[in-house]
Write a structure and sequence with these properties.
Number of strands: 15
Largest sheet: 7 strands, mixed
CATH architecture of the largest domain: 3-Layer(aba) Sandwich
CATH topology of the largest domain: Rossmann fold
Shape: globular
CATH class of the largest domain: Alpha Beta
Family: Belongs to the TrpB family.
Strand order of the largest sheet: 1-4-5-15-10-11-14
Distance between the termini: 55 Å
Pfam families: PALP
Number of helices: 17
Strand content: 15-25%
Cofactor: pyridoxal 5'-phosphate
Radius of gyration: 20 Å
InterPro entries: Trp_synth_b-like, Trp_synth_beta/beta-like, TrpB-like_PALP, TrpB-like_PALP_sf
Number of domains: 2
EC number: 4.2.1.20
Structural class: alpha/beta
């Protein structure tokens, strides 16, 4: 077997032809979404009032293992895919660990992240349906940027509600969205009924993804030629992101490698779900036994400190309810620098897998995360997004455990994006002004919907 190169590249012909639907292999399926008014399982017709028809079919599909990727989508993917799997030789040397560390790099596109994988798919289906406009929310701005790129490719109008704290912390993100023709509004705003209500209750709020979702859904629901699109959490988005894990598995197999540990940052759960999908499938089938680790911020610990109950997906309580690990739809996380991980809940798929014991979860304070990010930047020369740095932190810790035990484990983590628009966050860490806010138990005593 030849030495593994720094970067393992697939050819364009090796881009997967199908998305992988992990739900088809799950022994216990995620619980159904519920209509917020009736609390009954939501129907296809009801979901089509919010989402594109094809995406609704994907959202509700628990049986088809593979969903064909339309050729038009694959052709656009070729502009930035396949993305490389990289052997982190320099990081291994720095840590003096016997572990082999790999990362799947998804930041090699203008959006700077994995988000473009689902944005292209969702806008393709919206255009195919004849829609003229989509609305969405964005936290760190990566999803908004990715969606603006996709809308530009398909000549679609876009309105983005950006979490206010990120809007202020990451001004260049909103400018990139505008470059590609998207409209950006800080959330909560006075342009929607739900935004005005949230501001009336808390005028100084820094906002949250739940708030921004409420506003985006409200705007979309008032226009028959518009639909709402979401960048994480939903089954359909995890499905689209499965291309990350599928490419990773193919690349590693070329050199006879298979991960003992797979690590991903966890906000809404889509990049994590996409990365782990083919590996956790092997765990479910009993052919492998990889350790799967979800990594989240200590300031927004939905898996590690949340409850597994039905809850609203948004703060305004107008979206369907999902059975998920949640801190409560009213939870407003601290304005930390990992805006993409500031969501109160977790993907129903990830939640069910975690609840059934197929993965572990850890949380870190942001100063520990940035410490790992800078070590990675110095050794691997890529400045990681704060979100991705959570996975780096866990990968370093797992590699150090191998140093103690002498085990030569293979570690794979997802480097979901770059941090070049996050320099205020790095400045805060380097100047010693970064605060590690961790909510108290009292902070997390929120009104949850509970069992239904």
């Amino acid at each position: 077997m030849s030495k593994v190169p720094y970067k393992i590249y697939l050819t364009e012909d090796e881009i997967p032809e199908n998305y992988y639907n992990i739900r088809a292999d799950m022994l216990n399926k995620p619980d159904p979404l519920l209509n917020p008014a009736t609390k009954q399982a939501i129907t296809k017709e009801e979901l089509e009032a919010v989402f594109c028809s094809e995406l609704v079919d994907q959202e509700l599909d628990n049986t088809n293992r593979y969903i064909p990727i339309p050729e038009e989508i694959r052709e656009i993917y070729k502009m930035y895919r396949p993305s490389p799997v990289v052997r982190a030789y320099n990081l291994e040397k720095k840590l003096n660990t016997p572990a082999k560390i790999y990362y799947k790099f998804e930041g090699n596109n203008t959006s700077g992240s994995h988000k473009l994988n689902s944005a292209i798919a969702q806008i393709y289906y919206a255009k195919k349906q004849g829609l003229k406009k989509v609305t969405t929310e964005t936290g760190a701005g990566q999803w908004g940027t990715a969606l603006a790129i996709a809308c530009s490719l398909f000549d679609m109008d876009l309105e983005v509600f950006m979490v206010k704290s990120s809007y202020e912390q990451k001004p260049f993100r909103k400018n990139i969205i505008k470059v590609f023709g998207g409209e950006v509004i800080p959330s909560p705003s006075d342009t929607t009924e739900v935004g005005r209500k949230i501001l009336a209750e808390n005028p100084n709020t820094s906002g949250s993804l739940g708030c921004a979702i409420s506003e985006a859904v409200e705007v979309a629901s008032m226009d028959p030629n518009s639909r709402y699109v979401l960048g994480s959490v939903l089954n359909q988005v995890v499905l689209h992101q499965s291309i990350i894990g599928l490419e990773s598995k193919i690349a590693l197999e070329k050199y006879g490698e298979y991960p003992d540990i797979v690590i991903g940052c966890a906000g809404g759960g889509s990049n994590l779900g996409g990365l782990i999908a083919p590996f956790i499938s092997d765990n479910i089938k009993g052919t492998r036994d990889s350790k799967i680790i979800a990594v989240e911020p200590a300031s927004c610990p939905s898996l590690t400190r949340g409850k597994f109950v039905y809850d609203y997906c948004d703060t305004g309580k107008i979206t369907p309810l999902a059975k998920m690990y949640t801190l409560g739809s009213g939870f407003i996380p601290a304005a930390n620098h990992s805006g993409g991980l500031r969501y109160h809940g977790m993907s129903p798929i990830i939640s069910k897998l975690y609840h059934d014991g197929y993965m572990d979860a850890v949380s870190y304070a942001q100063s520990k995360v940035f410490e790992a990010a800078i070590m990675f930047a110095k050794t691997e020369t890529i400045l990681p997004a704060p979100e991705s740095a959570h996975a780096i932190r866990a990968a370093i810790d797992e590699a150090l455990k191998c140093k103690e035990t002498g085990e030569e484990k293979t570690i794979l983590f997802g480097l979901t994006g770059t941090g070049y628009f996050d320099m205020l966050a790095y400045e805060s860490y380097l100047e010693g002004t970064m605060e590690d806010y961790i909510p108290s138990d009292e902070d997390l005593k929120l009104d949850l919907v509970g069992e239904l």
